[in-house]
Amino acid sequence: MDMLNAMTAAGAGQANGGAAAATPRGAISTSPDFETFLRMLTVQMQNQNPLNPMESQEFAVQLATFSGVEQQVRSNQLLEALSARMGLSELAGWVGMEALSAEPAWYGGAPLELLTPDVPAADRARLIVRNAFGTEVARFDIDPAAETLEFDGTGADGFPLPQGHYDFTIESLRSGEVIATNPALTYSRIQEARFDDGAVVLKVDGGSTLDSSAVKGLRAPEGGGY
Predict the structure, then answer these.
(1) What gap in Å lies between CA 61 and CA 67, rounded to an integer?
(2) Separation CA 209–CA 196 (nearest Å)
(3) Where are the alpha helices (DSSP H) in the chain?
(4) Contact, 208 vs 192, CB < 8 A?
């Protein structure tokens, strides 16, 4: 009698015996259970063909194989639990740090530091600023060789822009033609880090959220400390 038939017989025996801890109807356990395996093995021994009995070595192999699988499952469960604890510990270290990304940044009145792309062929460059609605609110010529910029919040009319989220784009030109368009990277302070549907989500300045996969770098806030 093979193991599949033994499983069927074992299940029937449990149902007829009215076991108190019976699995709910329609539910199938996906994790190995060593006691269940022993019951299956017993049924297999009881129902084997007496004219062609199974060798004891075969039972030993089945027992060793299942035991190994069970231990592997338990190891995986322990590793998953350990990974989750380590992940939470790591997330706690992100809070208070500044995350670098190409996502819109919160302008609250203080100047913002922007990191510009490296386009060696450009002889001119300009910074384009858009508000949360995608409307262009400012455009400035910048040094194409500059690695960082400071946005002071001045709009196209020369007056300060209101607080809000802004998107920054760098257009690189050569001989008057645009040869590259790239986002300018900005830093946002992380206020909260959490798991959400398997992804790490960061709450940053201005109340917006940032997927951790969009983070290009981390740094401590200026002045040190959190």
Answers:
(1) 10
(2) 11
(3) 3-17, 34-46, 56-94
(4) no
Q: Phi first, then psi: give them for residue 11, nearest 5 degrees.
A: -65, -40
Q: What long-range pairs does 190-198 form, CB within 8 A, spacing at least 24?
A: 190/94, 190/95, 190/96, 190/97, 190/98, 190/99, 191/95, 192/95, 193/91, 193/92, 193/94, 193/95, 194/91, 195/87, 195/88, 195/91
CA torsion sign for 107, 109, 115, 120 is positive
For the record, the structure tokens of 186 come out as: 């900005």
DSSP H or E segment with residue 194: strand 185-196
Three-state SS for 36? helix
Lowest-pLDDT range, 57-71, 119-133, 141-155, 159-173? 57-71
Q: How much is the mean pLDDT over the chain? A: 78
b/e map 78-103, b = 16+ CB within 10 Å: eeeeeeeeeeeeebeebeebbbbbbb
pTM metric for this prediction? 0.60
